[in-house]
Amino acid sequence: MLRRYFLLINLLTFLACTFSSCSKNLDDPFPDTSIGEQQLRPADLALLVKGAYSKIHGGWPSQTYPLFDIYADDIISVQGGSVTRFNPQAYEACNPNPSDGFSNGFYYNGAYTAIGHANVVINYIRSRELTDLNKELGEALGIRGYCYFRLMEAYKGVIITLGSNEDPSEYKRAQNTEEEVYNRVITDLKDAEKLLPSFTTADALSKEAVQLLLARIYLNKGDKVEAKKYAEMVITSPATELTQDFTSNFRYNNSGNKELLFRLVEGPVPSSYDRSGMFALYSPGFPYRRPTGVTGNGQTWLNADLVDAYETGDVRTGLVKNQFANSVGKEVTYLMKFSLDTLQEANGFVTYPQIRLSEAYLISAEADARGGVVNVARYNEVRKKRNVKVKAAADFAGANDFLNEIEMERRKEFVGEGLRWQDMKRFGKALGFLSSKGRDATRLYLPFVTAELNKNPKLIQNKGY
Predict the structure, then answer these.
(1) Does the pLDDT at position 59 exceed 50?
(2) Domain 1-60+103-194 falls in which CATH fold?
(3) Which CATH code, of 2.60.40.2550, 1.25.40.10, 1.10.8.60, 3.40.190.10, is assigned to 197-255+351-415?
(4) Domain named SusD-like N-terminal: which ranges (predicted)?
């Protein structure tokens, strides 16, 4: 039986209709009963892939998308709350609670739910050698690889499940090692790369999207040669191009954008649903109001050092807003990348960028710098599109100085998009930051939530929790 993580649909509905009339439910199943692979048809697999995309963030992206931004140093949050509910203050203090105070469980379960959908698709297609479904197979492999990468970033070693009937909480064993998970991720993404078409839409994984994921992974592993190779593949692809309109990366209707390579979308959202788009979390409080009259919490803003680093004319500053914050008695700078009223049209769809082309340019530059070479070409291409002055190699004292510059450029480019905590680890900033919060190296990773430990006694909690 495929449990809640996987292919779950209402059995009564299934018995009452043909697959042609009920297969629309496969992308949004009901968690009561299940069906097996033998009851699937090839035509249903595209819907399972769609369902896998929708589950990556656990159903409510507004709760899991900003997790590592609040954990890291770019975002300051004084929003409190119960330890058993959405509580970014605990994460800003780098003190996550195994009882799940910050939707840690949504992050974990969302990834495994998407993996479960992907496993069904992968095993169905491979076991039947359905070569006409290579695109669906490539997407499923890419989703599985991406989700295991997300899990590894958060927890280090996790349980690898590849079978259609496997549930990580029922498969009673300890997790795989970090290296085993890395190998699984790279294998899946390289297999996906061979099957996927080039980029045409940000709403599905493409060859270039998984290549950029591979570049990111190799960079985090310390393999600068492979990181640069994959970054350059993406940069030189005729299907990709940096955009002059930075805000289009965050708009739902962004026709012509070839920079936003992969996104997740929430919606359509009714006007009363103000948690969508992380509106309540990131938006300023009163007197700021959106057209519906509501206001944000006003308790989460940008690090002042980051704000000060933006240069005159930088188009990225168009997506921040200064306002007085009563909670700290001073003016602060709010992030507006995800605000419905400033960026999203009346259709109410909210965009969550996952992979953007500009990262490939900065990975290429960083890979060179980590090899002792100050090559400003790719770095400057990003800066030109953001309307800031280009720099010469002679402007930097050496490769280490250039690395510091690349780190800051990444902060300005990707703030609020979930990349900062991994960057802090790679640039050697995480441990010092944890120390400033009274924490140690045990907080480099999140805790497995208590509910998962209770389900699987062989799951080993990360140290320090």
Answers:
(1) yes
(2) 1.25.40
(3) 1.25.40.10
(4) 101-219
